[in-house]
Specification:
By secondary structure, this protein is an alpha/beta fold. It has 15 helices and eight strands.
Length: 333
């Protein structure tokens, strides 16, 4: 008997994962918007977030959290990190005991500085918590292009069983027991993607982008390892893979924010016109708090933070980085 899955969230990546799961197992998706629910149920589309893309016909949608999760054997959280806790608390009364809960969110909670699996463990103690992460651009995957992801859980047996739920067609899913590293890789790379986008928007070349990506990887690895992640994780799909895709793709929300900043536009103006959340904007401040807490130097993140929070210009950021002493490549900076 196939398990029943529920996905909470009606955005582009949540809808994509729900569509993938629906090709393998009965899946119900929860979305706040009635128009999104109707579009999925009637037209097998989510035109608001994935215009022109066809979804698996068997995918069903509802705007009732109770209906979505009450019979589910697997819960997947596809909502932004800053509303993650609230949505999970709303779903809690209707979730059966011991059901695994997997996060798709790539951010850190403001105030608590918690990863999403830590929120799951706090709100839903006793439920296996995991994360699905990697270089996964929603539109490419729905278009049938090859991609790979990682399902990270402490219990490898559960991860292996969930592999079969997410894996389909040209979408490969690997397992990993480093939940901390996989989750941090996904959250921290968004800030570096803003930096890469800033360079692109300001007219910097490929050499600059390569330097930002490479030094950015070293930066996020330092903090990730200090927080308990495994070094090898940051060289894999959840680290370098996700970082590269997010820093170079025109489909990347965080790179888009950086690009527009590099063009001289204000952050408020950029965010106002976006229909989707760029997690790195809010995560940036949390990352700086963590860098201070773990005594890790993160110069690229620090300059991005000054642009987002203090109103510095992109040229200020580049000058700030260039003023740093250039020592051994093994050193920060």
């Amino acid at each position: 008997m196939k398990l029943k899955a529920a996905l909470l969230g009606g955005g582009s990546w949540g809808t994509t994962v729900a569509s993938l799961m629906a090709s393998n197992t009965p899946t119900t998706m929860w979305a706040r918007s009635q128009s999104t629910v109707d579009d999925i149920n009637s037209n097998h589309r989510n035109e608001k977030y994935l215009p022109g893309s066809k979804l698996t016909p068997s995918l069903r949608a509802t705007n009732s959290i109770e209906e979505a999760v009450k019979d589910a054997d697997l819960i997947v959280m596809g909502v932004p990190s800053q509303v993650f806790r609230g949505v999970l608390e709303n779903a809690k009364p209707f979730i059966r005991p011991w059901v695994p809960i997997v996060s798709l969110s790539k951010g850190l909670e403001l105030g608590t500085k918690m990863r999403m699996t830590e929120i799951i463990e706090t709100v839903m103690p006793g439920h296996p918590a995991g994360v699905l992460t990697g270089p996964n651009l929603a539109r490419e995957i729905l278009a049938g292009q090859a991609a790979a992801s990682v399902i990270a859980m402490v219990d490898d047996n559960i991860a292996i069983s969930l592999q079969k739920v997410f894996r389909t067609g040209l979408f490969r899913v690997y397992t990993n027991d480093d939940v901390i590293g996989c989750e941090l890789g996904g959250a921290l790379k968004n800030v570096i993607a803003i930096a890469a986008g800033m360079g692109d928007g300001a007219g910097a070349g490929d050499n600059t982008r390569a330097a930002v990506i490479t030094r950015g990887l070293a930066e996020l690895t330092r903090l990730g390892v200090a927080m308990g992640g495994k070094p090898a994780t940051f060289s894999g799909l959840a680290g370098m893979g996700d970082l590269v895709a997010t820093c170079i793709s025109g489909l990347s929300r965080n790179r888009h924010v950086g690009f527009q900043l590099g063009q001289g536009r204000s952050l408020d103006e950029i965010i106002e016109e976006m229909s989707m959340v760029a997690e790195g904007v809010k995560t940036c401040g949390v990352v700086m708090e963590l860098a201070k807490e773990y005594n890790v130097e993160m110069p690229i993140t620090a300059e991005v933070y000054k642009v987002i929070q203090d109103g510095n210009t992109v040229m200020d950021a580049f000058k700030g980085l260039l003023r740093r002493r250039s020592g051994s490549e093994a050193e920060p900076g």
